[in-house]
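Table S7 (text form). Paired inputs.
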Amino acid sequence: MRLRPAYAAWIVGAAVLVTSGAAHAQGTNPPGEEVLLLLENGLIWTHSADRPEATALLIRGGRVAWVGATGSAPVGAEVRQIDLGGRRVVPGFNDAHTHFFDGGFTLLAPDLLTSDTPEEFVRRLKEFVGTLPAGRWIDLSAAWDHERWPGHPLPSLSLIDSVTPANPVWIRRPDGHIGLANSLALELAG
């Protein structure tokens, strides 16, 4: 069975976290001496414009201490090494899950999230609606953050109805816990 590259990268990342934590918990090094973990022969995504990829990564005390080329890590004798065999390593994610579809659709949607006022939000939404045929549903995720707006007012359908009369609208906050629908969407929903 072949693993998809993204899934394999996730497994390697999880293994690194587990093994580095397990090695630290075992206490193989004297008190005060940090555990070193060296990953080599990999494809390491650095998220740096200067050098987007590397082949080796050194972890000291649970943190990235060095990134560079295989065979050039500044380590002594007491280091645990893992040969990645060309597998991918990506930075750890703090979130336990990712909504890839929402992220992809966000790239195709108008930038409503960075609107600093309700008026700016409505102006940007109106521009977007102008590019769509009447009747087309507008379903946007992570599309507004009223906490950026002065006074933090929650939007209501009265804010968007005038600019979306012919398109049903459903817009969600980034946390996914609040949604905003216009009158047409509510009418169609029954």
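Next pair, protein 2 of 2.
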Amino acid sequence: MIDEDLAVYALQLSTARYMEIRIEKTGGEEVVFVNGMLKESGFYETSGFSLRVIDGGSGFYFSNILTREEIRRGVERA
């Protein structure tokens, strides 16, 4: 699964004593009626992740960009 691969990738990048990553994807369908008439409908999906790192101090990073590059940036900055 892609999310599991990204989580393992993040953990392998870190040299911290403790690190956790949370990945979330949500989605749904939206239908809008006005005066009984269909005005619009569609699907949506959002995703993102957060990192928490503890190694002498603590750091946190979050993003709605779910890519390897963004996870690497998060590990470096957290």
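The helical segments are 2-13, 68-77.
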